[in-house]
């Protein structure tokens, strides 16, 4: 029962997204046979150092979705305080309910079963434009973002160019 | 869930026997003495905390208390059956499906409505409304006070 519900919900979201594309990203499946693994392309938000970038990422949903959050992994190289060196996105809305490892995330900031691919990606785009350096997944990037923005932006520009080359 | 509260004078063995006699079909015959029987499968799975899922018979005492309290609170939330004219909404925000006549619904104190199965599963993980993030226990207290 639960398996069917999560697959149906994801299929519905995929259909909606094909019908009404959202600016800022595009989404599809990695493999047409597997509704639980999505491939998304996020366009670097305008007026940020990421502008012009086309960043590829995978979203992996658990069978318990929407009761449990998906994981998001960037395949494109990223330099961002809230994206680990391995590409894993670390934002509070992808943290499971009740999880409060650092003791400051309120329930509204954590995973909720009303989140969809669209709301997740909107949060990720906002995180890309506006890093949260209080809980960095990449400590070096966070330190650089705070203390040496010029060098930080240069590294980001390199990621943007690389993402464009890979996309072609 | 009669085994959830500590009795000062008795030991854990009796608590375990209570548990068996309640939900156990495995040990139908009464076993007055001796060690408790090995736990069997097919117990419901609970989520005492994130990333932890355990069958009911593997929970610690604290987890059992927490879960029993949560189940008790959830059972106080009103339920109903969709009759086709709910003023509070036509769709469950969790599964994004429209309510169908005869489906079991659960009403939260913040006035949001969901399928009973969808929201009960969520409330065992987090006791907040997924739509407005209002803590359900606080909202429950408020409704008691105003009534």
From TrEMBL, chain A:
One Gene Ontology term from the biological process aspect of the record: protein modification by small protein conjugation
GO-annotated molecular function: ATP binding; ubiquitin conjugating enzyme activity
EC number: 2.3.2.23
InterPro entries, A to Z: Ub_conjugating_enzyme, UBC, UBQ-conjugating_AS, UBQ-conjugating_enzyme/RWD
Residues of the UBC core domain: 5-165
Entry annotation: catalytic residues: 90
This protein's name: E2 ubiquitin-conjugating enzyme
Organism (species): Mytilus galloprovincialis
Automatic annotation (TrEMBL), chain B:
One of the record's GO molecular function terms: zinc ion binding
Domain RING-type span(s) in chain numbering: 92-132
UniProt key word Zinc: yes
Record GO cellular component, one term: ubiquitin ligase complex
Annotated Polar residues bias: 1-12
InterPro entries: RNF11_RING-H2 (IPR042981), UEC_component (IPR052804), Znf_RING (IPR001841), Znf_RING/FYVE/PHD (IPR013083)
Transmembrane spans: none
PROSITE patterns: ZF_RING_2 (PS50089)
Origin: domain of life: Eukaryota
UniProt-listed Pfam families: zf-RING_2 (PF13639)
Keyword line: Metal-binding, Zinc, Zinc-finger
Region (Disordered): 1-35
GO biological process: ubiquitin-dependent protein catabolic process
Name of this protein: E3 ubiquitin-protein ligase RNF11
């Amino acid at each position: 029962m639960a398996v069917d519900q999560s697959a149906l919900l994801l299929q519905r979201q995929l259909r909606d997204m094909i019908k009404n594309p959202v600016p800022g990203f595009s989404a599809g499946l990695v493999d047409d046979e597997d509704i639980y693994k999505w491939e998304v392309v996020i366009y670097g938000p305008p007026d940020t150092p990421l502008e012009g970038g086309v960043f590829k990422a995978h979203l992996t949903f658990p069978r318990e979705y929407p009761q449990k959050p998906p994981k998001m992994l960037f395949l494109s190289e990223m330099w961002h305080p809230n994206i680990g060196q391995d590409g894993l996105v670390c934002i509070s809305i992808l943290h499971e309910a009740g999880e409060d490892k650092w003791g400051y995330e309120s329930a509204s900031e954590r995973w909720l079963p009303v989140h969809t691919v669209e709301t997740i990606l909107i949060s990720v785009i906002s995180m890309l434009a506006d890093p949260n350096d209080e809980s960095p997944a990449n400590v070096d990037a966070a330190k650089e973002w705070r203390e040496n923005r010029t060098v930080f932006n240069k590294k980001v520009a390199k990621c943007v160019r690389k993402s464009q080359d890979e996309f072609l | 869930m009669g085994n959830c509260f500590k009795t000062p004078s008795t030991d854990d063995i009796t608590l375990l026997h209570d548990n068996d006699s309640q939900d156990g079909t495995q040990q139908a015959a009464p076993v007055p003495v001796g060690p408790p029987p090995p736990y069997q499968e097919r117990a419901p799975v609970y989520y005492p905390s994130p990333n932890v899922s355990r069958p009911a018979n593997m929970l610690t005492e604290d987890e059992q208390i927490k879960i029993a309290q949560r189940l008790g609170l959830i059972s106080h939330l009103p339920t109903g059956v969709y009759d086709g004219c709910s003023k509070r909404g036509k769709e469950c925000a969790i599964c994004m499906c429209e309510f169908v006549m005869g489906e079991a619904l659960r009403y939260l104190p913040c006035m949001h409505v969901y399928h009973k199965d969808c929201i009960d599963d969520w409330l065992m993980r987090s006791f907040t409304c997924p739509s407005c993030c209002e803590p359900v226990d606080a909202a429950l207290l408020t409704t008691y006070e105003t009534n």
